[in-house]
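[09:14] KT: can someone run the structure on this one? pasting the chain below
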Amino acid sequence: MKFVTYMLDGSTQPRFGFKKNEYIIDVIRAAIWAKETHADLSFLEIPSTLKKALENWDINFLKLKNLDASLPEMNIQSHSGGGKSIAVLEEEVQLFSPIPNPQSFRDFYAFEQHVRAARKLRGVDMHPDWFKIAIFYFSNPAALYGHGEDIPYPRGTAELDYELEFAIIIANGGSDISQEDADQYIAGYTICNDWSARDLQREEMAMSLGPAKGKDFASSFGPYMVTPDELKDAWDDDGKLHLRMTCHVNGKLISDGNTNDLYHPFTKMIERASMNAKLLPGDILGSGTVGTGCILELRPENTGGWIKKGDVVRMEVERLGVLENKIV
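[09:31] RB: done, structure tokens below
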């Protein structure tokens, strides 16, 4: 399934839904519909947000799949729960980050091609421990944007960059999780754009601390949280996920990579992140930038320069959807 957090025109609070064909199904209204039409009260127990649902994900995911299966296949937009339509066209809603308020966002550094290129620009070779340890930094969980939202151009930078990534969202939560058990903690996958102010980042990392201020103004996620069962046939015999990753700026293809280049798998990232610490439901773990996945790596003179006000950055990951933002 593909889950979303979204807003309708005139609403004051984000809503929990899932994608069904070209529609977004509202979970609460669909649960009321099931009560009113089938006298089925069981779906009313589903939490009203995706983040809350992730706290007991095994049970809630099963209920959500059953709710989806119970819905009519034809003219779904004509059905209502509590007097309000259970379905709205996706193009008519504002999508947010699937989890708009995670307790934490850890971003890893797990694509070898990107790491090699970034270190070469700094005049250093690959550190041998990089191949042993899945490393990450903490970004700002209070500065998340969804598909279609405008991104304010950050003050104090002249070198705004994007980073093409994908991410996982944590289900259930736990501490000291082993890599062998980590799969069960992956609720789903989403696209990630780790926006970066390269000049600010360069200043702070010269003092051997960071990145921080070069990153904390914005991160984009979406458009959906895609559950692992939708991607079962995208894995190869070596345990690698094959999904093409691209980024267009103002319609021009700039970055083109694949998830199968990930050196450290997400299961290893979960093990590292949960060591001596608790991962919470809704926490986000980013992959780091795919090879060719940013202007820093490709160089601004080869890509038309850094990102500017008015630019539209469109990321697409096969089967995960499209994540597009405009800089304003």
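[09:33] KT: thanks! The helical segments are 27-38, 50-53, 57-70, 112-121, 198-205, 266-274, 295-298, 300-303.
[09:34] RB: yep, looked fine to me
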